[in-house]
Amino acid sequence: MSNADIRAKLIDGAAIIYPGPYLNQLRGERVERRCREILTEGIRNLVINFEETELVNSIGISLLLGVIDAVDESAGKIILTNLNATTRELFDVLGILSKVDIAGSEEAALLVMHAGNTPARPSETEADRQ
Amino acid sequence: MKLTSRKMLHTIGALADLGVEISSAHDFDEVMKASLHMLLGSLAIRKGAIWVYSSRPRQLKAVAAKGVKDVIGNCMPLSKDEAACFVSTGRAFQPGAEGDPLVNFAQLSIEQLGQLATRLTIPMIARQELMGVIFISAKFSGEPFDDEEIDLIDTIARHVGVAIYNHRLLASVKRKAEENRRLYRELRATYQSTIKAFAAAIDLKDAYTKGHSDRVARYSEAIATEMGVTGTELEHISVAGYLHNIGKITVDRAIINNPRPLTEHEFKELNTHVLTGYEILSSINHPWNKIAYMTKCHHERVDGGGYPQGLRGDQIPLGARIVTVADSFDAMMTDRPYRSRLPLDLALAELEKNVGRQFDPDVVRAFCRLLLKEVNGQAPRILTSTSGRGYDRDRVSAALVSMANGSGRSEIVPLALSN
Questions:
Q1: CA B328 to the chain's CA centroid
Q2: Model confidence at B415: pLDDT above 60
Q3: Is the per-residue pLDDT at B175 higher than 70?
Q4: Which positions in chain B touch A80 (Cβ < 8 Å)?
Q5: List of residues 6+ apart from B80 with CB closer than 8 A
Q6: pLDDT tens readout for residues B211-259
């Protein structure tokens, strides 16, 4: 199974990953493999951009947690961005947002990463204000 | 954390996805892996493992894991009492808690699953039998599981348990089906060797007819195949070929081996073999009554001049009409106490002479088509297995073309007789 259809790009030493429209088993496994490849290449900062993602199912959540743990084990940093309201609420009720930072945009996430700052708490993000 | 509507929708979605997954035709290990992810993802649980229980030997075997390295395929012994304890517990529990009767098992699981830091152990039960055990870590958030979440976990575990049960059931059905197929193959092999043994026993009454029944069976099967007969009917014709002379076991050996012309009394006794054979074979249940009737009719003639019933044309079963040609051809092509074998061209002339009298024209045409293929090297040698190469190939071929097409006399008769 190819990971090629998982769009990713590198900006200022951080990898931006786009899971696509539906984070399920098929895409979740590809995202997980792509992220592990990136970590293996020595890139420790990951931004997962959910701008195209409409739905995340239970397997998608489980695989995402695997990615978060892998970044943790690599002493890296992960920020989730562009969550729609549904996904954001889901991540919130599952307690994911209590441990993982989110940002309203890639740019905001990259700023945080480069500044080494603590990002805005979920309640202060642009998404939340909307 | 109480179930919010969003969380409720998410868990319902997880259960729906689980239902689809466990009823899918996916590989069992893939189903277990997906089921584990669904369970973990439904409540954002960090790590987990599914271990499937087997009673012989009594053990749990890891079939799916997340967040635990190198555990798939590992086994943990589980005593009968421990398995029973899981069944009686029936729901998720915290291992190693005070009064836990599975404390030894809990210690073992810690050794196997140290990285998991098991928070809950969940038995999977179907039909009051232990199917396996799921181990899960704490939630990603670090918050404890509440009662509603444990209920959800138990529900998912029951679903996965049913999936394991169904997988075992299917595996058992497949094993039984394969066992039945093997037994059927053995039974058929026994059946076929029994028939061949019978045929050999029949032929032993006459030193001249050694192998005759075997050849008649093979010729009959080949001719029937050439005529488009397949499946069970083809098999019946083959068996009729093997057993067509079974009634001869009651005929006096002196009559069978008599080199002189038979007296009327001797002929009468010899001819009883078709009825005797019928009596022997018709006592065997369906489908042997068809085979029995074929053997009874293998001395009938299409012109009505045969015995024992004087049947005509289509009144004679096709299998019997085929066996008649095969039987006569083999008789002509082998030495008999009263004459030497005929050359192939002369045997063909004899067949042609009796088309429409003794032999069915359709059967003879099929016979000729097949023989022509053999003569031209286009088919394995069955009909020519006893004839060697001692014949004029071009002349025989030409005669066979003519006979196979049914286009008048082949003129093989005068040519053959002129030799």
A1: 34
A2: no
A3: yes
A4: none
A5: B58
A6: 899 999 999 999 999 999 999 999 999 999 999 999 988 888 888 877 7
- ipTM of the prediction: 0.85
What's CA B189's distance to the chain center, in Å? 11
CA-nearest residue to B40 within chain A is: A62
Segment B265-316, tens digit of pLDDT = 888 888 889 999 999 998 887 677 899 999 999 999 999 999 999 999 999 9
Task: Round to whole Å and give the CA distance between B47 and B34.
Answer: 13
Burial B394-411 (b: 16+ CB within 10 A, else e): ebbebbbebbbeeeeebe
Chain A residues closer than 8 Å to B5 by CB:
none
Residue A26 has pLDDT above 50, yes or no: yes
Asked if residue A108 has pLDDT above 90, the reply is yes
The dihedral region occupied by B112, where left means phi > 0, alpha psi between -120 and 50, and beta the remainder, is: alpha
Terminal Cα-to-Cα distance of chain A (whole angstroms) = 38
State the Cα angle at B136 between B133 and B139, rounded to 5°: 155
**What are the φ/ψ torsions at residue B354 (nearest 5 degrees)?**
-105, 10
Mention every residue, 6+ apart, whose C-beta is less than 8 A from residue B69: B115
Report the percentage of chain B scoring pLDDT > 90.
56
pLDDT at B1: 47
Q: Nearest-CA neighbor of B48 among B40, B57, B60, B58?
A: B40
The answer to whether residue B144 neighbours chain A at the CB level (below 8 Å) is no
**What residues of A are in contact with residue B14 (Cβ under 8 Å)?**
57-58
Q: Do A59 and B17 touch (CB under 8 A)?
A: yes
In angstroms, what CA-CA distances link B236 with B191, B233, B288? 13, 5, 8
Provide the chain B residues 58-77 that lie in CB contact (below 8 A) with chain A. 66-67
Arithmetic mean of pLDDT over chain A: 86
Strands B48-55 and B58-66: antiparallel
Looking at residues B372-395, what average pLDDT do you find?
81
Spatial separation of the C-alpha atoms in residues A41 and A34, rounded to whole Å: 11
DSSP, res B74: -
Provide the number of CB pairs (under 8 Å) joining chain A to chain B: 77
Cβ atoms within 10 A of the Cβ of A123, count?
9
Contact residues, chain A, for B139 at CB < 8 Å: 95
Report residue B386 as tokens. 């006893």
Structure tokens that stand for B152 in this block: 């959800």
What mean pLDDT comes out for the span A1-29? 86
**pLDDT confidence bin for B263, thresholds 50/70/90:** confident
